[in-house]
Amino acid sequence: MLRPVIAVVGRPNVGKSTLFNRLVGRRQALVRDVPGVTRDRLDGRVEFGGWQATVVDTGGFDPGSGNDLVEAVSRQVRLAIEEADLVLFVVDGRVGVTPLDHEIARQLRKSDRPVVVVANKVDERDQEALLGEVYALGFPQVFAVSAEHGRGVAELLEAIRPMAPGGAAEPARASLRVAVVGRPNVGKSSLVNALLGAERVLVHEAPGTTRDAVDTLLSFRGRAYVLIDTAGIRRKGKVTAPLEKLAVVMALRSLERCQVAILLLDASEGVTAQDAHIAGYAHDAGRAIVIAVNKWDLVPRGMVRRAEVVEQIRDRLPFVEYAPVAFTSAVSRLGLPELFDLVDQVGEEASKRIAPALVAKTLGQAMERRPVSHKGLPITFHSAAQVSSEPPTFAVRVSQPDKIHFSYERYLVSSLRQAFGFTGSPVRLLFRRAPARRARRRR
Length: 443
Known about the structure:
443 residues; alpha/beta; Rossmann fold; GMP Synthetase, Chain A, domain 3; 3 domains; six-stranded mixed β-sheet; 22% strand
């Protein structure tokens, strides 16, 4: 049974994202005490007493703004309202009702959706006496809450549950979690929208448009994915605003909870130093990686061959030479099926498990082919086994684990790749000291 959809709307800086985070039970949306932090729609799941619903955080709604970026945010809010089964209209219970609140209320009445007014930032019971003007908005259901402290949230959920039925608890479906990362303006949000076939995340020419790491369910060729669109990651020296710093932190955290990272490059600019930094973040996080060269349709035909671009990528990003490369265009949808062929492949390779006997045989033979020693003493192999996946990680027991040079480690990793693949995924080795051999007792 499908979960009902609940949209959280309101003017800027009334605490919508704080309420969203409280409902979903984790800090998924960026929260800061300045207006305009949230711009995209952000989905999460709320659970209450066996009932589940999808809750959607939205940007600050300003229907009358002439600013094109604010209008784009308002368009996202309207789309969220159209798709919702219930709307939570959030106002600031300390400030009271403003003319913009009245305008939003007028828009909501035209939407013909059931609306519940949430007076937020009501931290104490004696503040509820100030809520009389909230009822003047014309909606019968009004709840006083403090999203920051959790006050009144359970009562709110108890009231809205019968208003949005049908969300019986269901087991979580296994979906491949895919994060789209890259520098600002390389086309991350455009790529997500192209895959979804709708303007699901905000696209604007101004850098820094995306701030939250936006999770979106995608069904592509019959398989379920969770797409995570992230903020553009700029060099640390260029990130000065506190809000942008938070957005970059959220983007990096998305690497910790995804299984596959699509590293998006701009075909018209080639591989930059910041691309290398971002690739390093994904590699260090242990994520499977697919490199996507976006805006390929803008490169004049015959100007450069794909093989030359791949060679440049391998030259400038040698530490992720295991990552396959796709060529895409979010605008023309060029290469999207091929991109997800690679996403599926590297996702499967990263989760692959190898039997201990095969691992030990492969690494034992590799060390026999190319013996290694330290100060004249041979480093001998004892055993090896895979201890985890995503990324594939192997514990290797040798006589002198702290004397293994990184170049020899690369050789062993290469031996594992030749034997078992692991395309698109980093491979990690954990060297452990082999147990000392016991001397035989004489009889």
